[in-house]
Amino acid sequence: MIQESIDLKVALKEFFGFDKFKGNQEVGIETILSGNDCFIIKPTGGGKSLCYQLPALISEGCAIIISPLIALMKNQVDAIRGFGESDAVAHFLNSTLTKNQSQKVKNDVSLGKTKLLYIAPETLKKEETIAFLKSVNISFVAVDEAHCISEWGHDFRPEYRQIKQMVKQIDNVPIMALTATATPKVQQDIQKNLDMSDAKVFKSSFNRDNLYYEIRPKGAKETTLKGILGIINRFRGKSGIIYCLSRKKVEQVAEILQANNIKALPYHAGMDTKTRSKHQDQFLMEEVDVIVATIAFGMGIDKPDVRFIIHYDVPKSIEGYYQETGRAGRDGIESTCVLFYNPNDIEKLEKFLRDKPVSEREIGEQLIAEMASYAESSQCRRELLLHYFGESYNKDQCLDLCDNCRHPKEKEDVTHELTQLLTVVGQTGGMVRTRHIVNILVGKAIPEVKAYKHHELPFFGLGKKRQDIFWKSLLRYAVLHGWALKNIEKYGLISITEEGKKFLKQPIDSQLAIDTEFEKVSEEDFENSKIESIHDENLFEILKEVQREVARSKGLPPYVIFQESALEDMATKYPINLSEMENINGVGKNKAKKFGGQFIEVIAKYVKENDIERPEDILLKSVVNKSIKKIHIIQNIDKKLPVEDIAKSVNLTMNELLNEMENIVYSGTKLDLYYYIDELMDEEVCDEIFDYFKESEDNSLDLAYEEFDEEFSHDELHIMRIQFISDVAN
């Protein structure tokens, strides 16, 4: 029976406290109440949950809500219970319940107390579950996260394919499918699989006009983490989510944020359920500001005030990216979404697909390619996203809420090149992909091009004066403007459209900014590389003089006070207090306390006089890296083991061990090597070498070797220098 419109509005106010519906919620609810199937496509934050919650609450019987989100069902049920008269109004039925708990749920449903029953598809397909549901009054079935049905969706679940058969076994009730991300292809898959081709479709705009989209290059690990800290500092005290692809990275990033006084917690599927739930609740209750998570986090989370979403790694698809960024700014207030992009990450994602079945691999590769195209494009981000979901958009409406519109690149006239491109696309007959078309244009006769005999055609090498990146940019531009079509169903084959043919007959003046060519950073480079110090030369020279003054007052060589690399770091980060000085590379707590005061005074004065804006976001505190090797070295020195034996025990050469030991003492830890030195030389010779290091302006071991007429080896002198620095600098 269709409810009167006024009744729905009264119910909306009574249960949820809202005065009016959002978008097409009301017509969707009316459709399901009238006994007809409907398909709700709303972006994250668009209020799709209310589309099944309200009709369930006012209908006779119990609505079945099929959801893949076992870990979050309790939160969803708790939220609904807040609107009902008793806890029995909503329940979940899944594998986490005990036998007694499951029976209590079934009793409440049988007695008509329950209006919404959340159930996982794995639980639904059990014979005992179907038998039970046949015995009760079902109002309708809602399939949440319906994109899980499609292999072209970003979260495909094979068990979702069986939903229609399972529902048919229970009762012939209307079905409501809901999703926050559906391309035309995914939408078609959902309707076909649920046998609801006649369903009324209510599709809201995918435009989230309060979100700012930005892509940044993912450089060295330290650079990226400093960039992340900069974003968090801009939103200090606000809620944010950082997405990483691996559990290990989640743990590492969370640990580093904690070391930098950020209230952050990790969240991933490898954690036990209790800890995961606790971290999630702490985030929802605002006991922590930042959650670092894999994509396991966020689905079904209704936190309206998430102010930033950061992708530390590139997502596997635009659908995944859109859904994850959609968790920001659900209250309508401007929020920021930043993706750190490295083309090498795309190659890693593609490698994960190698062992998949052919069709799954080709679909995965196409989705990854679309993600790369989005990240590298110089076009309006919002226009690109909406085009992907089959929605047209005027980029002038973006209002600088993406990096490409806020900081546009210089454009050039590409009308002539566009005609060349569309000619090639037309001549290849929609049989090849982007890479193939680019190879034809630049004249690369690779095997695939030869297989089609395209290297023999007159237009082969037509655009060889231009680089690959230009033609890729232009092809993306042509697809975006409807002159060419990328056929997703056929794994990205490119064909010319009717509009493209019209363009060839009567070209339109076209301006294009070339896409960004991001530098590849290998995993090894990313993990090991450090940010290059772009230091303030004037301050560096001032600090060199301070170093000399402090050295003279202490009667020590300047290099003992601080190494040159530490001075460069000070001239980059401008530390003006003791805790910031401790964080300078090669300083540490002890040296900061012992020598840092005079340097801090000078830097603070310099910052004030020159009105310098300090880059507080790059004062990255690393997690104290007392690796097992370093701890082992320190412990074995304390045990007075021979240095040669220590080197063997940690699998290092003598030179590598001595460098490790020198790093340990330079960072402020004392070492006592006299037990070993006493075996090498008598006290008088030892004092003589120490005097040399004390008086020498240069800490070169080669010079020391020559000074003592090659009487001592480099290693012996190195050990002496380590002990000298430990004694006088710490």
Question: How would you sum up this structure, described in words?
Answer:
By secondary structure, the protein is α/β, with parallel strands linked by helices. The protein folds into five domains: 199 residues, 3-Layer(aba) Sandwich (Rossmann fold), CATH 3.40.50.300; 166 residues, P-loop containing nucleotide triphosphate hydrolases (Rossmann fold, 3-Layer(aba) Sandwich), CATH 3.40.50; 101 residues, Winged helix-like DNA-binding domain superfamily/Winged helix DNA-binding domain (Arc Repressor Mutant, subunit A, Orthogonal Bundle), CATH 1.10.10; 80 residues, HRDC domain (DNA polymerase, domain 1, Orthogonal Bundle); 102 residues, Arc Repressor Mutant, subunit A (Orthogonal Bundle), CATH 1.10.10.1390. Helices cover 49% and strands 11% of the residues. It contains 35 helices and 17 strands. Strands 3-4-2-5-6-1-7 form a seven-stranded parallel sheet, sandwiched between helices. Strands 8-13-12-9-11-10 form a six-stranded parallel sheet, with helices on both faces. Strand 15 and strand 16 form a beta hairpin. The N and C termini lie far apart (83 Å).
